[in-house]
Specification:
With 257 residues, the chain is mainly β. The protein has 1 helix and 17 strands. The protein has one helix at residues 11-22, and strands at 2-10, 33-43, 46-58, 70-73, 81-84, 94-98, 107-110, 116-121, 124-129, 156-159, 166-169, 173-176, 181-184, 194-198, 207-210, 216-221, 224-229. The strands form 8 sheets. The protein has a 3-stranded antiparallel sheet. Strand 8 and strand 9 (124-129) form a beta hairpin. The chain is rod-shaped, with a radius of gyration of 48 Å.
Length: 257
């Protein structure tokens, strides 16, 4: 830090003082710059020369010993100050890149998800790339301290902590009880005389109703698809016969065979 000292003495005394000051052994001053200005003071006994000495010095920082967990900071306005070392928080994905020293603070490096997480490489902390899972197949997502976990079943949207069992499925699939697998929802095909009674849910398959000729066929009623009874024609007067999607057609002429 810069310090100025100003004092007065006689011309003769100033030369001896400056000589002794600059030759002092073990002085803590880093440098001395002396600007000597002569001025005269009027006194009853006449003009007497005096010297105004201005000493400008840069005070060198002196080593200081800080306790464990602290480092020394030197400024231009004060002496050394002991500051606490920064702690790198592993829970926030940080590790020590450069340890705290006697004169410098800790340097922490932070792993930033979803690109990186804090991993241990043979006992040494470092940032590792987060595993990239297919869309909607990550559980849990990458955090500052843990990697992403991808579900082993590609039709999962959520799974167990070890990623081996599904707990929720993508659209058009349901979670099969017992196996914990995602199974495609059954589609009821109207062309085969089948229609949906109960729609597929997250945990149950579609319930289909199939109309079975020659007793029933699929028709469209006021509430949608339904099974209707096939028309019974006199023997030898049916043309064509009842199918899964169409009723029987009886000959209009009773003499037809």
């Amino acid at each position: 830090m810069m310090v100025n000292f100003v004092f007065q003495c006689s011309r003769q005394a100033s030369s001896a003082y400056i000589s002794n000051l600059t030759n002092a052994q073990g002085s803590s001053w880093a440098q001395f710059q002396f600007n000597v200005f002569l001025f005269f003071l009027e006194a009853d006994f006449g003009n007497v020369p005096f010297v105004n000495i201005v000493i400008t010095t840069a005070l060198a920082c002196q080593p200081c010993t800080c306790g464990t967990g602290f480092y020394a900071v030197c400024s231009d306005t004060s002496g050394p100050v002991c500051m606490p070392c920064t702690s790198c928080l592993a829970s926030a994905g940080q590790y020590v890149q450069q340890a705290c020293s006697a004169t410098a603070d800790t340097v922490c490096h932070t792993c930033t998800p979803p690109e990186q997480y804090l991993a241990q490489n043979q006992g040494t902390p470092s940032c590792a790339a987060c595993t990239q899972c297919p869309a909607a197949q990550v559980h849990p997502v990458c955090t500052a301290t843990t990697d992403s976990v991808c579900c082993t079943d590609l039709n999962c949207v959520d799974c167990s902590a070890d990623a081996t069992q599904c707990t929720a499925c993508i659209s058009s699939y349901f979670l099969q009880t017992g196996t914990q697998l995602c199974v495609p929802c059954t589609v009821c095909h109207s062309t085969a005389g089948s229609y949906t009674v109960t729609a597929c849910t997250a945990t149950a398959d579609t319930v289909c109703q199939t109309c079975t000729p020659p007793h029933q066929y699929l028709e469209t009623g006021p509430a949608g698809f339904q099974c209707a009874d096939c028309t019974t024609c006199p023997a030898g007067q049916v043309h064509p016969a009842c199918t899964a999607t169409a009723d029987s057609v009886c000959c209009t002429d009773p003499h037809c065979a």
